[in-house]
């Protein structure tokens, strides 16, 4: 079967289903039809047949149809027996008769009815058809939008009928838009009607509208084409501006990731001066903590899954912080005043940690899921914002300000700074430098750990995770100015936004190269970074 | 009796006619030099001149701007405003960097002694010794007999002969002071800027240092020396300038200056 | 109160102290005199714990603190004003002073008024970074910082270095004042002989890492002492 | 009074080092060619190429030590110079393949043919001539170092800032060379070399010659570095490392000193790369990877920063450890060993192997040579 | 007792360990199985494992060590093309045998190498065909990591698509660096490209670690397989094990084997493999199958030749046929590549693939692509008398287009 023929048929199924269902709804009487033919089509284990059966089901007007379609969508529709029959798998694996929803008399070996993308689309269409007259306004609106996207002429009569009955203004405007979308490309309507449609669609102003407007047929009247061209231009201009904003948003989001990755380093490296090559591994440990937490939740407390990250954050902080303290006590503390040698030791530590994780968890990626509140996206104007990214930005800023407050406002913060600036003298002031050193390194590591929790949401959780952030982290800290937390914040955001503004023009690879070159040049201008520490003590 | 010059805190954009004359004669000429750090005025329209062969002592309260003044002369700090000329107005020091200024013949001893900690005392002097400064020729540089002699001389003067093979970093505070003075001598500059040379020295050493500086000065070098030790300043027996809040508060002989009410009030104490 | 007995101290292979002893009493000033490089600073470092001693003992109020960490010594009340000031360069003046709170109980965590009446300049520069101050201002800050700790023993390594005459006088007065309070033992390293002479209750003179003379303040008049520290 | 002697051009350890190198350069070929293959002293060919590789690494480490150990420039981009030297040599070797490539194109290397390139990009011109390629081995890294260093040192970029921008430099080059459009074979790099100066690159004789050449380059490189650091120039370098501002106030142009050292070091790295490529048979962008450059630093630190012999020794040692650990029973745990080695060296041999040895020797000498100063007896004032 | 040594040259550390470690385990597993079955030629097999640590020069060094020092009879190894290229001269020089089990860009046929992974025509082209026929795709995004395999594959695909009448403006090609982790812009671009009214699909040659963030971003931006399906050539069961697959439902992969292949041979293999690894969740994947096929072929060839001598085994290998794990047989062809079925799978929620299409027959590898200018006239045939990996049918000479 050729593709266009299939498309055409699908559309017809959808539309006649619409029409019929509307009619049925209007007369308030649903006539149960014999859908057994459709049901038996579902047992052939062929996608084409399944698709056809879906059409028939939608057409049938049977009250059982909706249940069957949703069972199929959920993978609960099974078939088996001789001759093969369809069942709905009920709770606890009981086989139910699809029409009556009563337990089936016998229980043959069954297989699920297979579904592929095509079938999934047919399910959507059937659901759409079934829901244009759904009592739920939200579903009606969804259906209208779906029809609008499909832009199928055959759906027009059904749509118009539904429109006539619709009272909810939101749903109504969606239906109007759907109607206009169809009209634009329809043959044989008056230019005036078409221009009205063009205007209606043009007012929508989004990417979809653009696609619809481009479908004005070649044969349309010149004034229509003119109107469409004007609308297209307007939308493009508008979208270009939104696109800019969108890129800035992406940049901030990337910046927040960089900030998270770098912020722990801003402590261990920026404040303490340890060239901490194991920083990335601390991030990795945080990510693996998240994995372990989720694993425990999955097996023992599935209900808590949405809270898994919240549980993981303190645990990751404590765990990586503890590892950090351990590293500081056993290795780093012998190296104060020998900053460059910390590079050698921490490089060794990073190798050991990587291999340890590889030995314990295996070399492959580990699955860390997203809780529901971190999935999905929403729009502000034409700005598309994914919740996960939004939370990461919020989280990064929270961590940043918490850290800033700790360093600036608390006693331990003061002691940390004093110790790192002059360890010997701090000791003579009565500050327990050992303890403060351990706490500082632990704090930096712990922060890296909670960064790992967040990064597990957008990147691999694998033994290599740390390696992929270490270069960027150092770059951010140095670009912002070593020893200045604000520098790290502004540096991360600047690099993120610059990267995302460059990317559309230069592509991901050249964009990244360009960014590196820009940083190199920038450092020539400001050899101590964006927020350089100034003062006598620095200059000599 | 007193010779107090309290300069107007206005900024003289052009040197006054009288100053112009001084400019052509002076070895070092500062006019209306102002330096601010984040809004804090460390030097405030500071003007003075040093004549060729002159030795000048600078005193003044802590934070008066003495070290900053040296920073400006040696190119470490750029003034916000004002002129700094060297060699009778031929060279504008504000346009040059530290290296160029050092090559012109301005040597400096820092307030906090800074020596090359990982070089032996001997090598510290070798590095400072006047001579070839360019990179490539120095790959093939060989030490001359004259240079060797000069270094021995300096060792005698600073009395570190027995420490010559120790690392600079292993010296005590006072020994570093001496080494730095030695390095300054080795550079053989036209103008020596000496910041608190006798801090941490015993009284006898202080007297010796004064003697040494006088000797250097007698050999035709100009010297500007900053010190808080009045005995030392008295030993030097030269013209004294007292800075306060970034400008000259008083100038004259030590007796004149130390009789000044303001100087007593802000600096010497009663 | 503080007793140093017969200590040896090495830097690598080089011996800096040879059997040095010293005592300090509350309400008394003990002066350490000697030429450059004789080991005065090394002795102070040994007292506060910044350099380990190879032999001998340091006792504080009868307790052996020879191997104790510097921070613990500070917590017991030994405050140090080091040669070279050692200000925390990136902390503000206020924060520099506050580092002295570590040994204090919460209720005592304020900067004593003495500090500001002694060094008014600090009060006006509370928000500036310590490292930006002039040398002399830093020296004042270092002393103020030590006083913030309410020490029982105050170890001062050439505290007048780089300080303007009027404030040297003030420091002298301050030391006298602290001495008069009677509960602080003061150890003072000083090259400025007249200053030392005025203050010293006891003194030792060092040479090549060893004590070559000692006595009470009056004995400083002895010309031999001056000779010892002359070249 | 006599002046202290200038240390000899080659100290004892230097002489031992050169002697060992010389013996190896003679003995390895002899034992490879003339010892019976099954005798205990036979050096198999694969060991020869392994040793050859270590020697080029040692030269690379030497180049790092020159700038890190003596000038304090912690370059995290030294691998870039090594790789550029390697690419220059690789391009020459590539052009030597001629029609023996899989597509048999007389001019274009294989990767260009299958990406549909029609003609040789301009920057490939001249690489068919060995002298030109040899020049580029020096010039490509040298020029990059010159330009980069000129800007960076003049702007007084120092310390970690310099380290990180060198890292950014090599990272940018890594990304650039990964791109197929750059015309250097992308990720696959340059491989499948056939011969060098007309000699079959896989022949034992060629291998031995390359080995001996590597030894020679290392020896000469060592002498050059030694000569540089011992000269007045070298003393200024160390002074720059410890107190750059002070050097300026003394009248030296610190940036020029750094620049000379940086360029020399880059060229040494380039030579190392050029000798490396024919011995391992491949050059690919991963040589630019920042991790590689960090590893070089680690070799130097293990051997002893600021001791030239140590740098070379560290390179050989760490790489031998890598070869050894990555085979056999230990293979799954080799990162533990290597990581542990690095930690242990920092903790127990703080100045690296050779540095710690020097310290120990110094200490002994002091104990031996300098008798304790006479003790003045304390006496109370009367 | 004398043993036959088998070299295993897969990275166990570094960036590639993530993929290659499994293959090392596979060879060890096969060796154990073979030894249980009596070994080869009456001798036990002994695996020699080395770790080239994802470092290409180290690959060459280790290859040399395996062949020259350990004297292995055969080596199973490499994943990336560059590692193969790096060891190639070594295998040629020392005349040994390498089995290379990963899909790659083709354009190579060497006497000492046997390629048991897919050539582009055994993976990419059938996948595109499937999308055209079943998903009615008209607009294509070719997204890949910027290195040789994606570049070559995309070149071939571009030529192929154009030959099918796809217009220039309906193809979007995008390259990203290795390990690219921020996909926001690119996924948004894909979304935009896909909203032009024509059915759009993404053909992904994105490599390695970059896939996880890519798929996560697809999920985040709400791109579902029913809107814009993504078909990948480097994403298998092993990779999916590290991703939350719920949002990926319906995205596709094209391979020559899936763990979900429902035939007894496969079920048997999976059971033994999971028993061997003592992990009943351990997955199998395509390169593993290719390793298994290669291993079995080698065993069979050694037995046929009666010796492990490289020349004899190389000659014996051509024509060897062994069962693959998808219910058929794979044969070693004269071009040193094997015949393979092509399977298209849709990602299921449990991280497995639902096989939605399987080519009816086996496909012979086109090591030299007819869609590339430089190689369309080349063929490889290692049988006598041709004995050539790059025979030019136009000029009738071995050695490409050269004189
Ligand atoms: N880089 C800087 N940043 C901020 N303030 C500075 C800086 N350099 C100097 N100052 C301030 O300028 C003033 C003058 O300092 P300067 O060091 O010149 O004083 P001084 O006269 O040398 O004092 P002293 O006698 O104590 O050495 C001081 O108050 C100091 O705090
Ligand atoms: N860190 C060090 N390493 C090696 N030797 C040192 C070190 N510090 C001091 N010395 C040496 O120890 C001896 C005593 O030094 P110390 O600093 O105690 O002297 P000082 O009496 O305080 O001198 P000054 O009056 O100059 O401050 C000197 O010879 C000095 O060179
Ligand atoms: Mg000063
Ligand atoms: Mg001292």
From TrEMBL, chain A:
GO BP annotations, alphabetical order: amino acid transport
Gene Ontology molecular function terms on file: transmembrane transporter activity
Membrane topology: Multi-pass membrane protein
Signal sequence interval, chain numbering: 1-32
GO cellular component assignments: plasma membrane
Family that this chain belongs to: Belongs to the binding-protein-dependent transport system permease family. LivHM subfamily.
InterPro entries, per database record: ABC_transp_permease, ABC_UrtB_bac, BCAA_transport_permease
Source organism per UniProt: Ancylobacter aquaticus
Name of the protein in question: Amino acid/amide ABC transporter membrane protein 1 (HAAT family)
Pfam hit, one: BPD_transp_2
Keyword Membrane annotated: yes
From TrEMBL, chain B:
Pfam families: ABC_tran, BCA_ABC_TP_C
GO molecular function (one): ATP binding
Alphabetically ordered keywords of this record: ATP-binding, Nucleotide-binding, Transport
SUPFAM superfamilies xref list: P-loop containing nucleoside triphosphate hydrolases (SSF52540)
GO cellular component terms attached to this protein's record: plasma membrane
Ranges where the ABC transporter domain occurs: 28-270
The keyword Nucleotide-binding appears for this protein: yes
Record's protein name: Urea transport system ATP-binding protein
Species annotation: Ancylobacter aquaticus
Automatic annotation (TrEMBL), chain C:
Gene Ontology molecular function: any one: ATP binding
Listed Pfam families: ABC_tran
Keyword GTP-binding: no
Highest taxon of the lineage: Bacteria
Keywords per UniProt: Amino-acid transport, ATP-binding, Nucleotide-binding, Transport
Any one biological process term the GO annotation gives: L-amino acid transport
Domain called ABC transporter: residue spans: 2-231
Keyword Manganese carried by entry: no
Family, similarity comment: Belongs to the ABC transporter superfamily.
NCBIfam families according to UniProt: urea_trans_UrtE
Protein name per Swiss-Prot or TrEMBL: Amino acid/amide ABC transporter ATP-binding protein 2 (HAAT family)
Automatic annotation (TrEMBL), chain D:
Protein's name in the database: Amino acid/amide ABC transporter membrane protein 2 (HAAT family)
Predominant location: membrane
One term of GO molecular function: branched-chain amino acid transmembrane transporter activity
CDD domains given in the database record: TM_PBP1_LivM_like
Residue stretches spanning the membrane: 12-34, 123-153, 160-178, 208-229, 256-276, 296-318, 330-349
PANTHER family: HIGH-AFFINITY BRANCHED-CHAIN AMINO ACID TRANSPORT SYSTEM PERMEASE (PTHR30482), SLR1201 PROTEIN (PTHR30482:SF4)
Pfam family, one: BPD_transp_2
UniProt lineage: Bacteria, Pseudomonadati, Pseudomonadota, Alphaproteobacteria, Hyphomicrobiales
Annotated source species: Ancylobacter aquaticus
């Amino acid at each position: 079967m050729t593709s266009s023929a299939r498309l055409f048929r699908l559309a017809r199924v959808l539309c006649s289903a619409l029409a019929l269902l509307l009619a049925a709804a209007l007369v308030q009487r649903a006539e149960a039809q014999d859908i057994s033919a459709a049901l038996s089509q579902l047992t052939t284990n062929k996608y084409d047949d399944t698709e056809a059966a879906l059409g028939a089901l939608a057409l049938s007007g049977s009250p059982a149809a909706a249940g069957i379609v949703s069972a199929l969508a959920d993978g609960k529709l099974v078939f088996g027996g001789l001759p093969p029959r369809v069942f709905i798998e009920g709770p606890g694996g009981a086989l139910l008769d699809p029409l009556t929803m009563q337990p089936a008399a016998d229980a043959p070996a069954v297989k699920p009815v297979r579904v592929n993308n095509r079938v999934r689309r047919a399910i959507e269409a059937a659901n759409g058809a079934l829901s244009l007259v759904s009592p739920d306004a939200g579903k009606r609106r969804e259906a209208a939008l779906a029809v609008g996207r499909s832009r199928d002429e055959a759906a027009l009569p059904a749509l118009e009928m539904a429109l006539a009955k619709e009272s909810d203004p939101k749903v109504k405007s969606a239906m109007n838009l759907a109607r206009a979308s169809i009209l634009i490309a329809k043959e044989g309507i008056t230019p005036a009607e078409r221009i009205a449609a063009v205007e209606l669609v043009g007012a929508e102003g989004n990417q979809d509208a653009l696609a619809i407007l481009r479908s004005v047929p070649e044969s349309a009247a010149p004034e229509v084409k003119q109107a469409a061209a004007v609308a297209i231009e307007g939308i493009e201009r508008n979208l270009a501006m939104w696109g800019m904003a969108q890129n800035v948003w992406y940049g901030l989001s990337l910046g927040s990731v960089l900030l998270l990755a770098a912020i722990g380093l801003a402590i261990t490296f920026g404040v303490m001066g340890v060239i901490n090559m194991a920083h990335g591994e601390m991030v990795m440990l945080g990510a693996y903590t998240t994995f372990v937490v989720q694993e425990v939740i999955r097996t023992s407390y599935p209900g808590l899954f949405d809270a898994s990250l919240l549980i993981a954050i303190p645990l990751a902080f404590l765990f990586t912080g503890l590892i950090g303290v351990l590293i500081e006590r056993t290795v780093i503390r012998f190296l104060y005043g020998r900053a460059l040698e910390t590079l050698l030791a921490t490089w060794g530590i990073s190798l050991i940690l990587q291999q340890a994780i590889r030995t314990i968890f295996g070399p492959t990626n580990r699955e860390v899921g997203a809780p529901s509140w971190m999935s999905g996206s929403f729009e502000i104007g034409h700005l598309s914002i994914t919740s996960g990214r939004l939370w990461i930005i919020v989280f990064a800023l929270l961590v940043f300000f918490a850290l800033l407050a700790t360093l600036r406002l608390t006693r331990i913060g003061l002691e940390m700074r004093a110790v790192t600036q002059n360890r010997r003298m701090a000791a003579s002031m009565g500050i327990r430098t050992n303890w403060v050193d351990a706490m500082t390194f632990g704090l930096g590591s712990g922060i890296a750990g909670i960064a790992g929790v967040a990064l597990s949401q957008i990147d691999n959780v694998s033994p290599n995770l740390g390696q992929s952030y270490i270069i960027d982290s150092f770059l951010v800290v140095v670009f912002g100015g070593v020893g200045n937390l604000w520098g790290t914040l502004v540096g991360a955001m600047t690099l993120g936004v610059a990267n995302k503004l460059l990317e559309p023009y230069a592509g991901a690879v050249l964009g990244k190269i360009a960014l590196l070159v820009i940083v190199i040049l920038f450092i020539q201008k400001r050899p101590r970074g964006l927020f350089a520490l100034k003062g006598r003590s620095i200059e000599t | 009796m007193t010779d107090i010059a309290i300069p107007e805190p206005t900024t003289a954009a052009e040197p006054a006619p009288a100053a112009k004359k001084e400019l052509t004669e002076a070895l070092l000429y500062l006019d209306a030099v102002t330096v601010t750090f984040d809004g804090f005025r460390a030097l405030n329209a500071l003007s003075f001149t040093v004549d060729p062969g002159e030795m000048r002592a600078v005193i003044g309260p802590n934070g008066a701007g003495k070290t900053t003044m040296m920073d400006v002369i040696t190119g470490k700090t750029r003034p916000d405003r004002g002129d700094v000329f060297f060699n009778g107005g031929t060279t504008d020091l504000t346009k040059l960097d530290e290296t160029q200024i050092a090559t012109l013949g301005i040597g400096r001893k820092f307030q906090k002694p800074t020596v090359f900690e990982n070089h032996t005392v001997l090598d510290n002097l070798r590095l400072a010794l006047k001579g070839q400064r360019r990179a490539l020729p120095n790959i093939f540089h060989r030490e001359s007999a004259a240079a060797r002699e000069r270094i021995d001389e300096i060792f005698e003067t600073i009395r570190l002969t027995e420490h010559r093979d120790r690392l600079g970093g292993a010296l005590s505070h006072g020994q570093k002071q001496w080494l730095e003075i030695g390095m300054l001598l080795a550079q053989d500059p036209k103008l020596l800027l000496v910041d608190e040379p006798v801090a941490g020295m015993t009284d006898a050493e202080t007297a010796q240092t004064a003697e040494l500086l006088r000797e250097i000065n007698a050999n035709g070098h100009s010297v500007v020396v900053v010190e808080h030790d009045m005995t030392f300043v008295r030993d030097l027996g030269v013209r004294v300038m007292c800075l306060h809040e970034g400008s000259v508060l008083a100038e004259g002989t030590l007796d004149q200056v130390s009789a000044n009410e303001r100087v007593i009030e802000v600096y010497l104490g009663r | 109160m503080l007793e140093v007995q017969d200590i040896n101290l090495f830097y690598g292979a080089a011996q800096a102290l040879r059997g040095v002893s010293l005592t300090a009493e509350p309400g008394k000033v003990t002066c350490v005199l000697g030429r450059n490089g004789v080991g005065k600073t090394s002795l102070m470092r040994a007292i506060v714990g910044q350099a380990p001693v190879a032999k001998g003992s340091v006792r504080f109020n009868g307790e052996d603190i020879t191997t104790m960490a510097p921070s613990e010594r500070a917590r017991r009340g030994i405050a140090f004003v080091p040669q070279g000031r050692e200000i925390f360069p990136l902390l503000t003046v206020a924060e520099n002073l506050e580092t002295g709170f570590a040994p204090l109980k919460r209720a005592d965590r304020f900067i004593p008024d003495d500090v500001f009446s002694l060094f008014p300049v600090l009060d006006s520069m509370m928000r500036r970074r310590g490292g930006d101050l002039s040398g002399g201002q830093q020296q004042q800050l270092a002393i103020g910082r030590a006083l913030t700790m309410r020490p029982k023993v105050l170890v001062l390594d050439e505290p007048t270095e780089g300080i303007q005459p009027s404030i040297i006088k003030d420091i002298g007065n301050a030391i006298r004042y602290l001495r008069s309070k009677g509960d602080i033992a003061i150890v003072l390293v000083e090259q400025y002989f007249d200053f030392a002479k005025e203050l010293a209750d006891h003194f030792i003179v060092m040479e090549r890492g060893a004590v070559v003379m000692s006595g009470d303040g009056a004995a400083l008049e002895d010309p031999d002492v001056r000779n010892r520290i002359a070249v | 009074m006599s002046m202290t002697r200038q240390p000899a051009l080659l100290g004892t350890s230097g002489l031992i080092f050169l002697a060992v190198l010389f013996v190896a350069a003679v003995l390895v070929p002899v034992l490879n060619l003339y010892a019976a293959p099954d005798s205990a002293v036979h050096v198999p060919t694969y060991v020869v190429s392994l040793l050859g590789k270590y020697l080029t690494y040692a030269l690379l480490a030497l180049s790092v030590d020159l700038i890190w150990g003596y000038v304090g420039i912690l370059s995290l981009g030294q691998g870039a110079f090594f790789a550029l030297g390697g690419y220059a040599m690789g391009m020459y070797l590539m052009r030597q393949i001629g029609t023996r490539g899989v597509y048999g194109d007389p001019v274009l290397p294989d990767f260009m043919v299958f990406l549909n390139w029609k003609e040789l990009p301009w920057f490939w011109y001249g690489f068919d001539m060995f002298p030109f390629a040899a020049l580029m081995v020096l010039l490509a890294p040298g020029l990059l170092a010159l330009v980069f260093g000129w800007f960076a040192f003049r702007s007084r970029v120092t310390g970690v800032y310099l380290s990180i921008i060198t890292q950014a430099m090599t990272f940018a080059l890594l990304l650039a060379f990964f791109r197929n459009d750059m015309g250097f074979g992308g990720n696959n790099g340059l491989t499948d070399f056939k011969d060098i100066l007309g000699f079959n690159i896989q022949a034992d004789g060629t291998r031995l010659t390359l080995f001996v050449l590597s030894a020679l380059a290392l020896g000469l490189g060592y002498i050059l570095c030694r000569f540089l650091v011992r000269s007045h120039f070298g003393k200024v370098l160390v002074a720059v490392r410890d107190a750059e501002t002070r050097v300026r106030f003394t009248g030296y142009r610190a940036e020029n000193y750094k620049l000379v050292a940086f360029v020399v070091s880059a060229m040494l790295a380039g030579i190392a790369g050029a000798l490396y490529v024919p011995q391992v048979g491949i050059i690919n962008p991963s040589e630019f990877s920042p991790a590689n450059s960090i590893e070089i630093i680690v070799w130097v630190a293990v051997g002893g920063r600021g001791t030239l012999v140590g740098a070379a020794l560290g390179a050989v040692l760490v790489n031998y450890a890598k070869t050894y650990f990555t085979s056999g029973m230990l293979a799954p745990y080799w990162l533990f060993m290597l990581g542990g080695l690095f930690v242990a060296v920092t903790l127990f041999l703080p100045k690296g192997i050779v540095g710690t040895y020097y310290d120990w020797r110094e200490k002994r000498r002091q104990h031996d040579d300098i008798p304790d100063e006479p003790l003045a007896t304390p006496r109370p004032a009367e | 007792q004398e043993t036959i040594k088998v070299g295993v040259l897969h990275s166990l550390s570094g960036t590639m360990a993530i993929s290659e470690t499994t293959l090392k385990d596979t060879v060890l597993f096969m060796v154990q199985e073979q030894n249980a079955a009596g070994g080869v030629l009456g001798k036990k097999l002994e695996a020699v494992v080395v770790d080239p640590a994802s470092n290409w020069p180290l690959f060459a060094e280790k290859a040399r060590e395996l062949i020259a020092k350990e004297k292995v009879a055969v080596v199973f190894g490499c994943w990336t093309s560059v590692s193969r290229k790096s060891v190639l001269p070594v295998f040629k020089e020392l005349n040994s045998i390498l089995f290379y089990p990963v899909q790659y860009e083709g354009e190579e046929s060497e006497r000492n190498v046997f390629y048991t992974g897919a050539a582009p025509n055994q993976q990419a082209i059938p996948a595109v065909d499937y999308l055209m026929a079943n998903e009615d795709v008209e607009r294509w995004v070719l997204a890949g990591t910027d290195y040789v395999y994606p570049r070559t594959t995309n070149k071939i695909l571009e030529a192929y698509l154009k030959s099918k009448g796809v217009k220039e403006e309906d193809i979007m090609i995008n390259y990203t660096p290795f390990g690219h982790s921020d996909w926001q812009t690119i996924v948004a671009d894909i979304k935009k490209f896909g909203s032009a009214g024509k059915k759009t699909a993404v053909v992904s040659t994105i490599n390695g670690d970059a896939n996880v963030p890519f798929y996560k971003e697809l999920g985040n931006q709400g791109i579902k397989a029913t809107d814009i399906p993504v078909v990948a050539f480097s994403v298998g069961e092993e990779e999916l094990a590290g991703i939350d697959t719920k949002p990926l439902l319906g995205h596709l992969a094209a391979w020559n084997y899936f763990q979900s292949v429902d035939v007894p041979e496969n079920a048997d293999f999976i059971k033994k493999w999971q028993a061997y690894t003592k992990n009943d969740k351990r997955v199998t994947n395509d390169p593993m199958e290719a390793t298994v096929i290669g291993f079995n072929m080698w065993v069979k060839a050694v037995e046929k030749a009666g010796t492990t001598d490289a020349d004899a085994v190389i000659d014996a290998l051509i024509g060897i046929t062994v069962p693959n794990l998808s219910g058929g047989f794979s044969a070693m062809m004269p071009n040193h590549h094997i015949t393979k079925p092509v399977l298209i799978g849709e990602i299921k929620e449990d991280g497995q693939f639902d096989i939605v299409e399987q080519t009816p027959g086996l496909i012979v590898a086109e090591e030299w692509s007819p869609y590339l200018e430089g190689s369309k006239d080349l063929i490889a045939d290692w049988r006598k008398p041709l004995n050539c990996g790059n025979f030019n049918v136009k000029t009738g000479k071995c050695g490409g287009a050269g004189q």
